[in-house]
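Why does residue order matter? Because the sequence determines the fold. Keep that principle in mind as you read this record.
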Amino acid sequence: MKSLLTFLAIAAVILAPAVQAQSTVNAATTPTRQGMAQLGDPYVPAHVKAAARVAATPAAAGASLQERALQKLQAKFSEADSNHSGSVTKAQAQQAGFGFVANNFEQIDVSHAGRVTFDNVKSYMRANGANF
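Structure:
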C-alpha cells in the first residue's frame, strides 16, 4: 500500500505541470468574462478589442468572412471586366488571372452568350455549395 501511495505522489508531481500547461492553453484560447472585461481598458488597442469580440461571436465571424470573400470575388471580377460592361469573357478572365471563372466558364455561362455576369458567377457558386 505504501508503494502505491508513493507511486501516486510521484505521478502527481510529474503530471501537475502538464495539467497546468493544458489549462493555461485553454484559458488563452477561450475568451473569459475577465478577459472580455479587460476590453474596456482604454489602453487596449481598438484592433485588439475588435478581434476579441469577433472571436467571441463565431456566427458574426462567419458572416464577416463570407462578406469579405464576396467582396474579393467582386473586386477580381471588376478587374477582369476591362471594358466595364458588367460582364466578362473567358479571354478577359484568363488575361486577368481569374482562373475560377476561366476554368468553369462553360458551366457558368448557362445562356451560352460567351459572357458571364457577376450574378452568373454567384449563381454557379450557390449551385455548388456556396452560402451567400
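The chain has a mean pLDDT of 77.
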